[in-house]
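Task card 7
Instruction: Convert sequence to structure tokens.
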Amino acid sequence: MLLPTHHALKRFSTSSIRRLLTIQQCPLWEDFAIVFERDPAARNGLEVLCCYPGLHAIAAYRLAHWLHQQRVPFVPRFISHLARGLTGIEIHPGAQLGVGVFIDHGMGIVIGETAIVGDYALLYQGVTLGGTGKETGQRHPTVGSQVVIGAGAKVLGNIHIGDHARIGAGSVVLHDVPINCTAVGVPSRNVCECNTATTPLEHAHLPDIEADTLQRLLARIEQLEGQLNSLKNMTHLSLRAPLAQSAMPTTALSIALSTALSTALSTGLSTTLSTALSTTLPTTLPTMEYQSYG
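Output:
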């Protein structure tokens, strides 16, 4: 058996696939064409048709979803089950996928019954668009257009992911994400703006919110330590001045008392002691008060 040559594969190009699908506006055509825009490893149309499980899963979903809309029992779920076994991607027939949705690698992706995925969204392996609890009605996420959801991200509950948003790999999203916003973390936090329209594959530009938070905390601690050291120095200086001033009245009082006592002893008269005290202390005490409170 002869293998197809490179030239033969090249002739089986996108134009051949386009004629095979017959209608350019068909969602399957958009699903096929978007692969060449989003995956630099895509070489030719035959390779994409045969070797891309994301495209296979979406093609099976398109059929199952049409049958689900026609209220055909059992068959849509069985098609979804077969596609899950062949591709590792589970898409409920009741989900609503826009045109040009690209599932890269795809293993482990789960898209729930009431999930809505906008046009030209990009999903990587391990993504879950799931519900929470057993509530009925709309219980799965609504994902806008041009959204990029990184590998292993979990988007849970009836929440809305705005157009051109980006979900970091491994994030757990439990709340709405605004338009042009990046959500990262467990649970996720909306941290910055992004532009998935022009650079959908620039995953290296996701912020490290834990490192940024630690750096801000360290800077704040250093600032507080500096303020504390300044207060300590000011307190030390303010305490030294009153102590030096309080020592002065004690010395003046001792000098006054010793002078009065020596005068009394020299005369031997008690009246002299009282006279000395009455004349010496009044001149000393005002000075003490001034030095203590001045």
